[in-house]
């Protein structure tokens, strides 16, 4: 039960932070391209890599904290369903170039950000 509460609390906080960060970034840029969601997904990918690297390095950290940060916070913070909907809207509007750029950059840069977060924990070990 404690793990479920940790996940729920993390998801609650992650969703709020996602909304604030995404809106703020999108408000800075006057474009139809969904930079706010892209940045949130990239930051979330980096964080989940960082967290998993941290838990590998410090296995004594408890399961509730692991679930709070990874499944909860990162799950609430990242926005794959929003990503899918935004791609659908751009396809519907005929913005095929934006769809290609958005999907390719999200996948490639997301994987790169996850690796960089994980790598950072390895570099800090030395």
Verbal overview:
This protein has 5 helices and no strands. The chain is mainly alpha-helical and 126 residues long.
Topology:
Elements (H helix, E strand, L loop, with lengths): L1 H27 L6 H23 L5 H15 L2 H13 L3 H30 L1
Rg over alpha carbons: 16 Å
Query: How much helical structure, as a percent, in the residues?
Result: over 70%
Number of strands: 0
CA(first)-CA(last) distance: 37 Å
Biggest sheet record: none
Compute the number of structural domains: 1
Tell the overall outline. globular
The helix-strand sequence is: HHHHH
Low-confidence stretches: none
Structural class: mainly alpha
Approximately what portion of the residues adopt beta-strand conformation?
under 5%
Q: Count the helices. How many?
A: 5
- Integer average pLDDT: 93
Describe, in short, the structure shown.
This protein is mainly α. The protein has helices spanning 2-28, 35-57, 63-77, 80-92, 96-125.
List keywords for this structure.
126 residues, mainly alpha, 5 helices, 0% strand
């Amino acid at each position: 039960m404690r793990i479920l509460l940790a996940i729920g609390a993390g998801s609650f906080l992650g969703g709020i932070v996602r909304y604030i960060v995404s809106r703020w970034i999108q408000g800075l840029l006057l474009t139809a391209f969904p930079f706010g969601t892209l940045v949130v997904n990239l930051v979330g990918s980096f964080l989940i890599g960082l967290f998993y690297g941290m838990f590998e390095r410090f296995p004594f950290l408890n399961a509730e904290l692991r679930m709070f940060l990874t499944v909860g916070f990162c799950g609430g913070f990242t926005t794959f369903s929003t990503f899918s909907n935004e791609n659908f809207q751009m396809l519907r509007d005929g913005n095929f170039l934006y769809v290609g750029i958005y999907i390719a950059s999200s996948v490639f840069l997301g994987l790169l950000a996850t690796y960089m977060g994980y790598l950072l924990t390895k570099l800090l070990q030395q």
